[in-house]
Fold this sequence. Notes:
Oligomer: single chain
CATH architecture of the largest domain: Beta Barrel
Strand content: 35-45%
Shape: rod-shaped
Distance between the termini: 103 Å
Helix content: 25-40%
CATH topology of the largest domain: conserved putative lor/sdh protein from methanococcus maripaludis s2 fold
Number of helices: 4
Amino acid sequence: MQFSIKPLSSYVIFNKSLMLLAPLLLLLAIDAYADKTKQIDPASNVTPALTVTLTQAKQVTLPLKIFANGNIAAWQEAIIGSEANGLRLTNVLVNVGDVVKKGDLLADFSAESIIAELNQAKANLMVAEAQGKEAINNADRARTLLNTGALSNQQIDQYTTAADSAKARIEVAKATVAAQQIRLNNTKIFAPDSGIISSRSATVGAVVGTGTELFKLIRQARLEWRAEVISSDVTKIKVGTVAIVTAADGAIFKAKVRKISPTVDLETRNTLIYVDLPANTSAKAGMFAKGEFVMGQTSTLALEQQTLVMRDGFTYVFVVKTTDGKQVAKQIKVQTGRRMGNLVEVISGITPKQMLIATGGAFLSDNDIVKVVPGTIPLSNKHPVSSTNISTNKSTKK
């Protein structure tokens, strides 16, 4: 077997070439890295996480309100029943939704049997009066013979007693006539107050007993909103406080608090606030409504919505601080309150002079390096303070 051997000089030449090129390649790599770092950030040699603009919280005046939910109900609902017993309804004059005035005839019963009994009672009264008149005259004549000896004292007393008994029978007969007259009057059902008929169970031809419900009446057509307010807010509301009520159909009413319940519901821990609604509204009893109690207004700090960051159920803002020549974003937890359009009240956590990152906080983490655009963008003044679009973080249980 034969072997070919290459000259050793070719390997020596190749190795020497590599030794000459290695320093040159190293210098080229260092120059490329330096150029790259200069393009990133010549001051800090660190890439900024985000380019941001700054803003500040602004002092604004916001209405102070308490929000609640509740039902619309009748102020008072009168139950109109029957006082007659065993009589037949012959006429029903009203229906559900009818507006009635106090004293209007609503229905009547058959009255023939009661009229007959009334006439009989009147006749018995006439008999009693005639008998009584005779007894009284006999007693008067007997008293004139008291000292003559024509009649004994016992006989005179008998005439006097007979006259007194006759007078009592007359009073009994009068009472019977009055009772029958009341029964006759009860055959007609009148409205006990002005209002709206909300329910009718009366049916022509029905024979009803005493106390049977025939109608329900919303007294004076007055409605109220029964708002459920959490216990911590009840003491802030007073009688006469203005409330803005929004019904289920979108109608908005301005009303006032009439009464505050003295008790708290053991299950919901809410208190009922009774609010009188204005007359002639589109609201109906049984509707659900939401509303707000106007408690005045206060001065407070506010930020635009995009400045706030929600994380893990908490609200944060980012401030910019300078550390070693770098602009660093610092995360701060804040407590928010009322809202108005794009403005959010900040109750605690920041001061008016702090510079905050206006937008993009959701893309930042604590201690991220940022690039700040020169200049501070102030809070917009284009948000009018309205009395109908302020909300709080508080809520009530329905």
